[in-house]
Amino acid sequence: MSNRNTKLWLGFLMLVIPALQAQVVKVPADIQMRLMVKILAYERDHRFDSDNFTNVVVLYHSKVSGSVAAKDAVINAHTQSPLKVNRAIIRFIPIDISTVGDIGEELHRQGARVVYLTPMRGVNIGAIINACRAQSILSVSGVYDFAQFGATISFDLLDNKPKFIINTTSAKLEQVVFSSDLLKLATVIE
User: Fold this and answer.
1) Which of 54, 56, 120, 172 could form a disulfide with 114 if both were Cys (CB 3.0 to 4.6 A apart)?
2) Rounded Cα distance, 161 and 35, in Å
3) What's the pTM value of the predicted model, to 2 decimals?
């Protein structure tokens, strides 16, 4: 194999291997959802509490057991204790990504304000993030690595304590403006 081909092959592997690694949700869904509600309340334009309802689309892949389990955990967390952002009730709408043709059209049809991304393999996360950006929909995930792929908010554990990560570049592209007080509490990436 020539030196050029070796470099191309290594470059390809560097892109593919992270996508094949396990997508781990470290923070329990009930804690993520309580944190998400608090984070949404810190959005400066009050986009998430101005109506009676805030629709959160939970994207999952029915053929990925971890994805289905994460979706079920999010829905169950809400069922046990209905969530609100100030006066707006959060409605969770589960969508199996494997049944969706055009993700942008589906998010629009559902009236999504927030998209929660579960662990998904074989799915173009970038296309989902681009659809969120095109429609100013906040992207959130329990998979820490998804912040690196462009999700605005993700969750992780540090010393057995939940923390949240805010990708400020993605927030700007999704037209979400968080208060400086919230950003001081977050791990901020660009």
Assistant:
1) 56
2) 12
3) 0.84
Quote the CA–CA distance of 19 and 41 in Å, as a whole number.
32
* Cβ proximity of 123 and 8 under 8 Å: no
Residue 89 and residue 48: Cα distance in Å, rounded? 10
Which residue is listed with tokens 């660009």? 190
Q: Is the dihedral of CA 22, 26, 30, 36 positive or negative?
A: negative
Chain segment 133-147, per-residue pLDDT in tens: 999 999 999 998 888
